[in-house]
């Protein structure tokens, strides 16, 4: 079997498409080599070997060693070195690489092959002793940490102690002799911790590193990550072994990372950072503040450190050309890692770069306009749920706030909150319902929970590619990083900037788009939904088939929905209208009345209010369909709950508290979700449906007069399980329509349809469609009743179900396509057989979930309806589903 695939400028055995076999990093290394780019030669051990390894009790196939030996020899031939020859050592990096980039896997080991004798050769041939020992100490630390399980802090402690003793502050202060002494201590530490000397034999080092990569596939961190991200365990990881190139060989060497476009804004300008005389992760680790790659970026950042463009113009121009070639080739924004060894550029990695939603939109639209992508491709490029980020507030430009400090614009959006200096404090405040800004010198993976809890993140150190910046962008949270003029005193709980000292709990505002920090709360505005956002939405609207409506009942929600492009209201829940202000009093009066007359008297008070509500809604949605659901929840939900409330209602209504309590007790239900609710209320109290229908038609007449365009209400009956219930209630609505027409002289066109939210209704859809003009699938209740899981009680066990793979996802988030979905498909088929032009939609949370929207397209529904803020997401998802 072929396990090993070589790549070099001469020949690459793999290609970019072979991610399954070679992993993401490996496939792209082969592709870059194939394109003729300067990639250090190396080879990839395939993911199939990982599969073999675990299928065979963690052993290797007998033909692996010779393939690895041959590939190593080939790398040696190309570089002119010999692996294991202390007089002419070949040094290697060993890098893991799964199909999808996966934190939790083994970290890269650099400088492998060094030992006590080859380091002398390296010092001699490079003419730089300091460099040789610097490389060796890095190797001992990395290898011991990731392969031998000796924690890094052991080495950091030794180094700090050594520096203190010598009065050094920077690592670069150490000379060759210093490193030699530190290395002696490092090796002693390893021997103490492992009981064995640090491995000197390069071959042992190599196999140790390879084994560590494959073993890391099953470590706890990797398993958790895979579970959270739905990555199957049988994918396996690949191992990349590659000749070392050195960014730490003095002032003409460097290492860096870059994006072909700005990953925060999407601006079409090369964006990146580098460090002179550095290796590996130094840039990301925030050890020194990195330098900009281009002059433009340097000036924009106001940095006094020279750019790559200035100090290495030739390398810079070659690099720019390379990045452009890569972007054209992959037709996407690239995130690249590179190293310069004594003036020669080497490419070490490329991949499609992570980006903010704002950048994703701009890049997709720009690339379509540049002719690199088709409009359809551009639509497919943007993750619909990422649009959420764009609905973030921004600082009101009229506010003109005075910043107390400026850092890097690491992740867009603005946020205000109390200052907290630790992740735990952010979490505690968030649990107490308070908003915070997490302020740290820098962040690390231990701070993730606090970053989740905070509204925004502010750091005083680190660049655009620092931990804080990368994580915040992923979370869609505002972040300002590297605001270096701020001094944090963790012990005192204060931060000082621009002459102002603020303490924990004081309010600050950050603007992640401008990189600014302000004291106090600054007024904010909703984002403009124009520009690239508007363009992509227009393109999406051109290709989608399904309409997108909103679940809305208040004027504010309806207006928001319309501004986000809603094409009508798919669900107006009338019960919410009864909770407002003193309406609840009339509502309670109605519920507590013991006779029809009593109920009618109370309903008469509610009628004008409902009429006004509907008129307003129809006016806002003028020209668009509005679906109104008649009263749905169990009546007892409207009753006073606390003793004080009871007392208040009793006084206001002149009804004794005892009587009130007795009626409330009567209305008590053991399982209200399956109780006296929905159409059952209209069956028992037809006058409620009558009042609501009158209010709808009168409201339609009012709005029609005001706007001049007729309104066509769609009235929807909830929780039916058969045609008979529908046929009992529909005449009430018809009668109300006729009465209103007679009274006002205006005939309002209307439709009467039903929710399909019980399995029996789905099964009897053929019959129901004889009477109902439309179906709206109430997927929340349909999920509850199909799975027999109460959404309100699911929290205690649903997590377990998804963890144990009993359900692929939370069925209240993404439609259970094989169960609930099957019922929907049956109802669609049977409904259409009876009434071919029946209108079909989905309301409920699923209407805003991209995966569920794809299902709705598949089921050939006419529209989805979702909450106002998810409308743009639904528009894009519906377009993607149609493509
Ligand atoms: P990660 O997946 O964490 O990014 P990489 O395998 O890309 O890990 O390695 C991290 C860094 O190590 C690279 O960005 C690069 O700076 C350095 N590196 C890896 N391989 C080599 C090499 N052959 N020569 C020089 N530096 C390397
Ligand atoms: Mg990398
Ligand atoms: Mg329902």
UniProtKB/TrEMBL annotation:
Keywords attached to this entry: ATP-binding, Kinase, Magnesium, Metal-binding, Nucleotide-binding, Pyruvate, Transferase
E.C. number: 2.7.9.1
Record domain Pyruvate phosphate dikinase AMP/ATP-binding: where: 20-57, 60-297, 318-368
Top EC class of this enzyme: transferase
Positions annotated as active site in the UniProt record: 467, 843
Binding site residues for substrate: 573, 629, 757, 778-781
Coiled-coil annotated residue ranges, if any: none
Cytoplasm in keyword set: no
Requisite cofactors: Mg(2+)
Record-annotated PEP-utilising enzyme C-terminal domain positions: 530-881
Function: Catalyzes the reversible phosphorylation of pyruvate and phosphate.
Protein name as annotated: Pyruvate, phosphate dikinase
């Amino acid at each position: 079997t072929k396990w090993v695939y070589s790549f070099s400028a001469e020949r690459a055995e793999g290609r970019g498409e072979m991610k399954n076999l070679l992993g993401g990093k490996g496939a792209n290394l082969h592709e870059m080599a194939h394109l003729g780019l300067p990639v250090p030669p190396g080879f990839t051990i395939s993911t199939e070997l990982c599969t073999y390894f675990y299928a065979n009790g963690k052993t290797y196939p007998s033909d692996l060693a010779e393939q690895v030996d041959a590939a190593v020899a080939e790398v040696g031939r190309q570089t002119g070195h010999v692996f294991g020859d202390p007089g002419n050592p070949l040094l290697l990096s060993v890098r893991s690489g799964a199909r999808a980039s996966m934190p939790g896997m083994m970290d890269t080991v650099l400088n492998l092959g060094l030992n006590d004798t080859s380091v002398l050769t390296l010092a001699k041939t490079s003419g730089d002793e300091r460099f040789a020992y610097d490389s060796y100490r890095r190797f001992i630390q990395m290898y011991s940490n990731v392969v031998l399980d000796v924690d890094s802090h052991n080495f950091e402690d030794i180094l700090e102690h050594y520096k203190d003793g010598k009065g050094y502050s920077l690592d670069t202060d150490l000379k060759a002799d210093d490193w030699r002494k530190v290395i002696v201590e490092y090796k002693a530490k390893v021997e103490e911790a492992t009981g064995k000397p640090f491995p000197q034999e390069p071959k042992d080092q190599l196999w140790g590193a390879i084994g560590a990569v494959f073993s890391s596939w099953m470590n706890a961190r990797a398993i958790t990550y895979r579970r959270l991200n739905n990555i199957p365990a049988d994918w396996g990881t690949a191992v990349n072994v590659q000749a070392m190139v050195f960014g730490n060989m003095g002032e003409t060497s460097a290492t860096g990372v870059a994006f072909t476009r700005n990953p925060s804004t999407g601006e079409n300008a090369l964006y990146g950072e580098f460090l002179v005389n550095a290796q590996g992760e130094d840039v990301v680790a925030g050890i020194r503040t990195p330098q900009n790659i281009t002059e433009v970026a340097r000036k924009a950042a106001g940095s006094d450190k020279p750019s790559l463009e200035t100090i290495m113009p030739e390398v810079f121009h070659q690099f720019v050309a390379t990045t452009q070639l890569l972007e054209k080739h992959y037709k996407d924004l690239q995130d690249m890692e590179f190293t310069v060894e004594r003036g020669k550029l080497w490419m070490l990695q490329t991949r499609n770069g992570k980006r903010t939603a704002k950048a994703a939109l701009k890049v997709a639209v720009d690339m379509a306009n540049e002719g690199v992508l088709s409009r359809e491709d551009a639509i497919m490029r943007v993750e619909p749920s990422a649009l959420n980020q764009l609905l973030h507030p921004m600082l009101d430009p009229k506010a003109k706030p005075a910043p107390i400090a400026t850092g890097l614009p690491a992740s867009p959006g603005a946020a205000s909150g109390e200052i907290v200096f630790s992740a735990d404090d952010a979490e505690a405040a968030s649990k107490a319902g308070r908003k915070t800004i997490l302020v740290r010198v820098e962040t690390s993976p231990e701070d993730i929970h606090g970053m989740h809890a905070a509204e925004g993140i502010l750091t005083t150190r680190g660049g655009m590619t620092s931990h804080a910046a990368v994580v915040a962008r992923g979370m869609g949270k505002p972040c300002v990083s590297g605001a270096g003029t701020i001094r944090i005193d963790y012990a005192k709980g204060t931060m000082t900037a621009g002459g102002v000292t603020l303490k924990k709990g004081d309010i600050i505002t950050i603007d992640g788009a401008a990189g600014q920090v302000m004291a106090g709360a600054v007024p904010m505005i909703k984002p403009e939904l124009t520009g690239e956002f508007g363009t992509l939405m227009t393109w999406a609207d051109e290709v989608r088939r399904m309409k997108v409506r909103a679940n809305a009942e208040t004027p504010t929600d309806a207006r928001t929905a319309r501004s986000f492009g809603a094409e009508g209201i798919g669900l107006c829940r009338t019960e919410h209208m009864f909770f407002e202000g003193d309406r609840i009093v009339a509502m309670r009066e109605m519920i507590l009345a013991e006779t029809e007359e009593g109920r009618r008297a109370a309903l008469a008070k509610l009628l004008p209010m409902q009429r006004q509500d509907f008129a307003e809604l129809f006016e806002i949605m003028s020209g668009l369909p509005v679906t109104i659901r008649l009263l749905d929840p169990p009546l007892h939900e409207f009753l006073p709950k606390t003793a004080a409330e009871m007392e208040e209602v009793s006084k206001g209504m002149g009804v004794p508290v005892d009587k009130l309590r007795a009626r409330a007790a009567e209305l008590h239900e053991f399982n209200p979700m399956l109780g006296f609710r929905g159409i059952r209320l209209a069956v028992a109290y037809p006058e409620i449906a009558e009042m609501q229908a009158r209010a709808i038609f009168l409201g339609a007449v009012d709005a029609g007069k005001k706007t001049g365009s007729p309104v066509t209400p769609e009235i929807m009956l909830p929780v039916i399980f058969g045609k008979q219930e529908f046929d009992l209630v529909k005449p009430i609505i018809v009668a109300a329509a006729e009465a209103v027409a007679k009274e006002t002289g205006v005939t309002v066109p209307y439709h009467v349809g039903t929710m399909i939210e019980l399995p029996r209704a789905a099964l009897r859809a053929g019959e129901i469609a004889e009477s109902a003009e439309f179906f709206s699938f109430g997927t929340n209740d349909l999920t509850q009743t199909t799975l027999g899981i109460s959404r309100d009680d699911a929290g205690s066990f649903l997590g377990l179900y998804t963890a144990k793979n009993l359900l692929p996802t939370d069925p209240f988030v993404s439609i259970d396509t094989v169960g609930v979905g099957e019922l929907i498909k049956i109802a669609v088929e049977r409904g259409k057989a009876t009434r071919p032009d029946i209108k079909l939609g989905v309301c409920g949370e699923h209407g805003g979930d991209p995966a569920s929207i794809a299902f709705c397209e598949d089921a050939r529904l006419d529209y989805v309806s979702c909450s106002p803020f998810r409308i743009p997401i639904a528009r894009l998802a519906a377009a993607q589903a149609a493509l």
